[in-house]
Design goal:
Largest sheet: 8 strands, antiparallel, barrel
Distance between the termini: 61 Å
CATH class: Mainly Beta
Strand order of the largest sheet: 1-2-3-4-5-6-7-8
Order of helices and strands: HHEEEEEEEEHE
Number of strands: 9
Helix content: 10-25%
CATH superfamily: Calycin beta-barrel core domain
Strand content: 35-45%
Radius of gyration: 19 Å
Number of helices: 3
CATH topology: Lipocalin
Shape: globular
């Protein structure tokens, strides 16, 4: 059975266009002289940027925390907690150190053959802010995520600009940047 000419042309064009997919920009290096013992502890996630985020996702992001606990083998156990109404959503993973300090592979604790994810601390002063960049490789897509972390809700001057510039340097637009909706939010230790 022959394929109709239009379908054959469309499939051929699709194959050609897949071969011309632009390569993603190179990832910035991890922060120099990464200090895991200073990085550990609780961080507020103050902003996220990623190629999977859209404008409509802004209303879905509630404030949440990420707690990094450094183990003796150099791994970080990471726990996230986000309040949604009167309940708490939590998730966790392990950061396994890579060859370069401040760079990690992510172990989500799932079966072998799961998507590979790499993450790195791009910048941090350890006491006020941190910028992390993550790239997860799926079978046909690289999912990029940049996290703006703060020890409190107050960031040093220029940090937000640095976050936005890093996002743009990775080919993201302002539509790919989301911030938690803090309207009416207050920390509720009893919930999380």
């Amino acid at each position: 059975m022959r394929l109709p000419c239009g379908l054959w042309l469309w499939l051929s064009l699709l194959k050609v266009l897949q071969g011309q997919t632009p390569s993603p920009p190179p990832l910035p290096p991890p922060v120099q002289n990464f200090q895991g013992n200073q990085f550990q502890g609780e961080w507020f996630v103050l902003g996220l940027a990623g190629n999977s985020f859209r404008l409509e996702h802004r209303a879905l992001l509630n404030p949440f925390t990420a707690t990094f606990e450094l183990s003796d083998n150099g791994r970080f156990e990471v726990w996230n907690a986000m309040t949604r109404g009167q309940h708490c959503d939590t998730w966790s993973y392990v950061l396994i150190p890579a060859a370069q300090p401040g760079q990690f592979t992510v172990d989500h604790g799932v079966e072998p053959g799961a998507d590979r994810e790499e993450t790195r601390v791009v910048d941090s002063d350890y006491t006020q802010f941190a910028l992390m960049l993550s790239r997860r490789h799926t079978s046909n897509l690289a999912v990029l995520r940049i996290s703006l972390l703060g020890r409190s809700w107050l960031l040093p001057p220029g940090t937000l600009d640095q976050f936005i510039c890093l996002s743009r340097a990775q080919g993201l637009s302002d539509d790919n940047i989301v911030f938690p909706d803090v309207t009416g939010w207050s920390p509720q230790a009893s919930v999380c």
